[in-house]
Amino acid sequence: MDRRQFIGTAALGAAGLAIGGCGGGAPSSAPAASMQQARRLERIGLQLYTVRTRLAQDFSGTLEAIAELGYTEVETAGLHGHPAEHVRGELDRLGLVSPAAHVQIGAMRNDLDAVFAEAETLGQHYVIVPVVNAPERTAEGFRNVAAELNRFGQEARARGLRIGYHNHDYEFAALDGNVTGFDILLGDTDPDLVDFELDLYWAIRAGHDPLHLFSMYPGRFKLCHVKDMADGAGSQAMADVGQGEIDFAAIFARSEEAGLQHYFVEHDQPEDPIVSIGNSIQYLSQLEF
């Protein structure tokens, strides 16, 4: 059974248990399908790291192309040398909003007030730590980062902002006593102060079922990165959304349990960024779950 089949089967099982009565036997998907109205994503966002090369060449033109494709939200990963006021003006001109930013933890350690001020100018609500530095990827290091996230979260809350953390695959590696960095970050951070952005590709690549994570940590994942994994045994290459093996319908069907509010398309190394994001939004705009 491949990842798509596994995740789809898990979702149907969960739906059957939630909706079915007290009869025995394997849950059927038919009652769930008849009782639930199909949904689609109301807003589709883009992590701008996907189009970073284009933004460096033509910032305004690239944002225009993103808006024309139908994206309504963008998540920043640096401003490519432009002042925040200019970027906000471009977003407003194009009818785009930016709910979140990826900001390196070093910048937050150095000048948290400046980080928050930029987020406020851009109209952002979430400031996301996108990576833990390699030397800190130990049990002690993750505990220290969790403590920092709580501290950042307290200061963010005072300004009406939220702190978040975005995973790769290394957080799921076993550390002391088989605990993982992800376990530490989720367990040691205060849900009232720190949210999580689940990168679906990296979690699945690390061998974890997003639906299981939703069950373990309900409500913690306010944002996600929507990136696909290329089909093929053992493949770990990224693909445009809908052209790989990840069953996004099964995952999005559990959005309420997860806490998901924002969905950002991402592809780290697209051959043609504009074609890639066009393929992804075309698929997602029609996806029912």
Q: How would you explain this protein's 3D organization?
A:
This protein is an alpha/beta fold. It has helices at 3-19, 29-35, 52-57, 59-69, 84-94, 105-110, 112-122, 139-158, 181-188, 200-205, 210-216, 248-252, 255-258, 273-286, and strands spanning 45-47, 73-76, 97-102, 126-129, 162-166, 194-199, 221-226, 228-229, 238-239, 262-265. It has a single domain (3-7, 40-286), classed as TIM Barrel (Alpha-Beta Barrel). Helices cover 46% and strands 15% of the residues. Residues 1-34 have low confidence and may be disordered. The strands form 2 sheets. The chain has an 8-stranded parallel barrel with strand order 1-2-3-4-5-6-7-10. The protein has 14 helices and 10 strands. Helix 1 crosses helix 2, helix 4 runs parallel beside helix 14 (273-286) and helix 5 runs parallel beside helix 7 (112-122). The two termini are 21 Å apart.
Poorly predicted runs are 1-34
CATH homologous superfamily (4th level) name? Divalent-metal-dependent TIM barrel enzymes
Morphology call? globular
* Total individual domains: 1
Please tag this protein with its features.
two-stranded antiparallel sheet, eight-stranded parallel beta barrel, 15% strand, 46% helix, disordered N terminus, alpha/beta, globular, 289 residues, TIM Barrel
Secondary-structure map:
Layout: H1 3-19, H2 29-35, E1 45-47, H3 52-57, H4 59-69, E2 73-76, H5 84-94, E3 97-102, H6 105-110, H7 112-122, E4 126-129, H8 139-158, E5 162-166, H9 181-188, E6 194-199, H10 200-205, H11 210-216, E7 221-226, E8 228-229, E9 238-239, H12 248-252, H13 255-258, E10 262-265, H14 273-286
Parallel strand pairs: 1-2, 1-10, 2-3, 3-4, 4-5, 5-6, 6-7, 7-10
Antiparallel strand pairs: 8-9
Helix pairs in contact: 1-2, 4-14, 5-7, 8-9
